């Protein structure tokens, strides 16, 4: 698991098996687990298998998200 009070970048070649919690996240690689963020950007190379909870989500064309997604006010972790 990854827990950060600040920003986290999951790099293009990264493969995370576990949960990720951070204020701000940029996901370029793979996450197999849940994510809790204030803001989150999924790049074209990102693949998430699990749930995402965030206030703000930017999902680029080509990004993959398989699971439950909760976005907006009242969804802050």
Defining traits:
mainly beta; 77 residues; 4-stranded parallel beta sheet; 58% strand; 6-stranded parallel beta sheet; globular
Please tell me about this protein's structure.
By secondary structure, the protein is mainly beta. The chain is built from no helices and 10 strands. Strands 1, 2, 4, 6, 8 and 10 form a 6-stranded parallel beta sheet that branches. The mean pLDDT is 93.
Describe, in short, the structure shown.
The chain has 77 residues and is mostly beta strands.
Number of helices: 0
List the secondary-structure elements in sequence, H or E.
EEEEEEEEEE
Main beta-sheet strand count, sense and barrel state = 6 strands, parallel
Structural class: mainly beta
Oligomer: single chain
Shape label: globular
Give the integer mean of the pLDDT values. 93
User: Helicity, in percent?
Assistant: under 10%
As a whole number of angstroms, the C-alpha radius of gyration is 11 Å
Count every beta strand, where a strand is a DSSP E run of 2 or more residues.
10
Q: Tell me what portion of residues adopts beta-strand conformation.
A: over 45%
Which spans of ≥5 residues are poorly predicted at pLDDT below 50? none
Compute the separation of the termini in Å. 15 Å
């Amino acid at each position: 698991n990854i827990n950060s009070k600040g920003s986290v970048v999951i790099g293009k070649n990264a493969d995370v098996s576990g949960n990720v919690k951070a204020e701000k996240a940029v996901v370029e690689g793979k996450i197999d687990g849940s994510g809790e963020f204030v803001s989150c950007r999924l790049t074209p190379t990102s693949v998430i298998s699990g749930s995402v909870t965030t206030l703000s989500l930017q999902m680029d064309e080509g990004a993959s998200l398989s699971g439950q997604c909760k976005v907006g006010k009242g969804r802050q972790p």
